[in-house]
User: Fold these one by one.
Assistant:
Number 1:
Amino acid sequence: MKKAISLILSTTMAMGFATSVMANSTTQSIGVGVNNLGFVTDDGQLVMWGRNEYGEFGNGVMDGSNYFDFTNSVKDVVAVVCGYYDSTAILKSDGTMWTCGRNNSGQLGNGTREDSSTFVKVASDVVKIGAGEEYFIYLKKDGTLWGMGNSAERQLLNKYEETNVKTPVKLMEGVKDFSTYLRNTAVITTNGDLYTFGANVHGQLGVGSNSDSIDDVEQPAKVMSNVRSVSCGSEYMLAVKNDNTLWSWGTNVYAELMNDSSEEHVINSPKKVADNVLKACASRHNSAYITTDNQLYMVGENLNNELGLEKLYIRATEVTKIADNVKDVAINQRTVYTTLDGKTYTAGSQINSIGYASKGWKEQPYKIADEHKYTVNATTSSDNSSVQTGNLITLQIGSNILTNNGKDTTIDVPAQIINGRTMVPLRAIFEALGADVQWDGTTQTVSSSKGSTNVSLQINSTELHKNSETKTLDVPAQLVEGRTLVPVRAIAEAYDCTVGWDSETKTVSVKY
């Protein structure tokens, strides 16, 4: 483990509230955002700091002012997260989730795009909450993952791409933990597998590619197994495995990947970077982790002195020890960490002194609550996080075998990727689902029916018709070797099925 620090002197100091991304945290008791932060004290009091232009404090005030004093908001709170564009979500002790602040993309989840200076109830039976850029994601007690808000870059999966989702939608099942940040999400299933989805232009999904148009982001892609915790940064991720090893991947700009390089580069699959790590925290371009003996280490961007150093530098290019006896940490342009004996320390932009990035750390007169503990009652997930128990169809890219509930069937044309989408033989999928299939050679239209659901689509058309509804496909149905191939997810969703994707084995699965 490195303990030296290599520093580059900054010729300028960042002032004010610069545009950044929502910070991450090792605890739900602290949420550090772009323009504000919040934390929960040990008596359930929500305390906010920073800008309150859109009512993100949830205290009924919306006047555009910058508040540099800590302000009490609502009580009976166990968790808080601060979103990118000035919105806040909290979790109360009764398991209800509430949101307030900016609502330009429907991220408050109340069916509108109107801002709110008071908290509005969104959901019940919630155990964990998370925030990205103009969207929120939350986990329910039954292991289902939900989200609302902006999905322009697959933040809420491709089903909701380029839409503002104003009410919560279910994303996955079989989930026990997750992290989300800016435009991407990482999920840990009940069996410890790690899946990712969202934007991937910087390789942050860890699936061996840095393209966000390929099939591996169409549905959650499996990255690794035996994962205890994960933290999403803006362009990278950190994961701690059950053996206390720390892994990183994505884009390295300020040495945040901790892989012995301060040069900008992309690592698009996980690489081990440290041992004896208890938990880790990713942010914009800086990282923090706490060792098993409770030492806090940090590295990366330091434009606002968020690393709490005695001098102001652009970045720390090597991991350095910050403090002992540390319990939790949250980092963005400003950092909060707590100690095992109940103390709270802050550093970074404006939080300790108005007008500049102050040097060093300052103890604050608050005792932040312990991490909110929870359990999920989900059925143990299968090898694919999107699929739980039940009827299951699997097809591997390039294989002529379709497996339906353990029974193999040979198909004429294998599943394949066309224009970044998984295409499968339509008749084989429909028949496996128990649907009747008809073909009209004159119009080149295929139709199917199952119960009260009727589905039809035409060769070379991007329209799929389900009863009286019409859906636009990314890739049209097309003939390949005399067989009709269709995007598997569109067909599955037409019959209310769930599609999963395993990037390691290139296998698509359909739960029905």
Note: Residues 1-23, 212-218, 381-390 have pLDDT under 50 and may be disordered.
Number 2:
Amino acid sequence: MMDYEFKIKTSNERTKVEDLFEFEGCKVGRGTYGHVYKAKRKDSTEKDKDNVKDYALKQIEGTGLSMSACREIALLRELKHPNVINLIRVFLSHNDRKVWLLFDFAEHDLWHIIKFHRAAKANKKPLMVAKGMVKSLLYQILDGIHYLHSNWVLHRDLKPANILVMGEGIERGRVKIADMGFARLFNAPLKPLADLDPVVVTFWYRAPELLLGARHYTKAIDIWAIGCIFAELLTSEPIFHCRQEDIKTSNPYHHDQLDRIFNVMGFPLEKEWEDIRKMPEHPTLIKDFKKSNYTNCSLIKYMDRHKIKQESKAFHLLQKLLLMDPTRRITSEQAMQDPYFLEDPLPNSDVFAGCPIPYPKREFLTDDDQDDKSDANKRQNQAANQQQQHRSSSLSTTNTAGSGDVAREPISALSCAAPAAAAPGPRLDRLDAEGLALAGLRGLRKRAASGSVDGWSGGGGGATASPDGVCQSCFGKFHDDTNGEEWIQCLSCSGWYHAKCQGLQAYLHTFQCLRCKQAAG
């Protein structure tokens, strides 16, 4: 064990983030993941004031290293690609036990870009994303994902808010894939990941095999999400919008989300998806849905309503990305070679193609501001909770997409922020079972497990950022906690609990809830 005085001395000698960067009053994003600031180096001279580089400083919420933060840091230290966000440096503060991540600053993201065009449509002044820009965005997203997949990494939480776009500067118009907090290494042959994370990926962009409980899902889940993003760029509307997006559950099956997919795509036929019978939730699917309710639904009809013709190369590529059967879904490499990218206008490294950028820059937030995302989440959660209470008695196969503008804000505005809409990741001791063997993560894991990372006390190694949802003992809401209350997950039933409700004071490596212990005798 490291001597306490030595740790204090080491901490005092370590470079502090506030000594190097000016960011006070420059908050540009916040959420359950923490806060993000637009920062500048303090040693920049007045002479270079107009050319000073901007950075994104992400302060991780809570005290200690969460599983999501560990995974994000470890992967980003190993991954280097023009279309993947670059982690420049990690700052650890002993005094307040905070973790700061330094990234390049991205002025835009796809969520805000699509919102801009959706607002124009709502104001009766339709302004679609330019065809060349859509193509450039999609190509760069595919390029970044191809790099991740080539290195055996699944992103697992692709959505517009996690696709950043650089503003003015040397990387103008460059796409950056962000939010590696839920990324995972995968092996060949594939190992089951569902035991560790029953629910991953925001519902709207979640592949049907995930919703049906697939245990050996593959990189095809990222391809489905890219197809959803592609459709959203073409139409300015989320293709599989569902009102209950923010509900957290350990059960991957989501009736309303499947209903929305079927209302767009039609009900999957066994001849089109031979393995659908092998899905764990297939019996529930047959019980809840009637094939006849979706006979008039198809992707062709949906896109035609948005003036995307089935003869177009864009539609042909979209079809390949959104195939129900994951084994038939196109790969990122195949998609990059699609004829769609060979016709004019050709994809550009600057998605704005040298034209003036019409999108507004990020605004600074104050502590008194109510972030749009927080408000939207509260409204969605309240409505979703009410719907969930009545769901068992009122399940139906009606279209839940609704109409009008979609009220949602990105969880991550600038950097690789852990998504608020996903359940917490597994604990540190469960990493090796998945094959997460990156050297950076191994070292981080050992130090975090011992409660010390570079002289910084980790306080028990557990994550303190609370997931939305309720404790299975007291049924108190996790997100109501303000005192750093730790949450823990039972290895048997996967239920989430407040540590105090189970009579525990610290994060355990092997936790089994009282109910499961009693059931086991």
Note: The chain has three domains: 14-104, 108-360, 475-519.
Number 3:
Amino acid sequence: ALRRWRASRLARQQFREQNLQRTAGATGVLIFVSEAERHVEILVDRGIERHLDATARAAIVARLAEQVRQGRTLQGFVECIEACGELLSEHVPPTHARNELPNRLVILD
């Protein structure tokens, strides 16, 4: 339980350090995986929270966690990103404005 708590704490810390809470529309999303702890979490800013409810998020997290357990982390990320995109596309459509945040993978050792 302590290892998962630490992983969850690290996820929240990364949400802040990556400035995901600083977008104009409060649309930051962090898909966090700690393979060692087999801990998966999706953190969202308040502008996303109302469109990606806890039930939908839990289902996506469960699928990603299963993929991680099976050693299919990359495939899990791809499916997770696609699932989040599908749920959010009608509520938070992409714009032609520049991204406020980079769309990239951050790997911590």
Note: The chain has four helices and two strands.
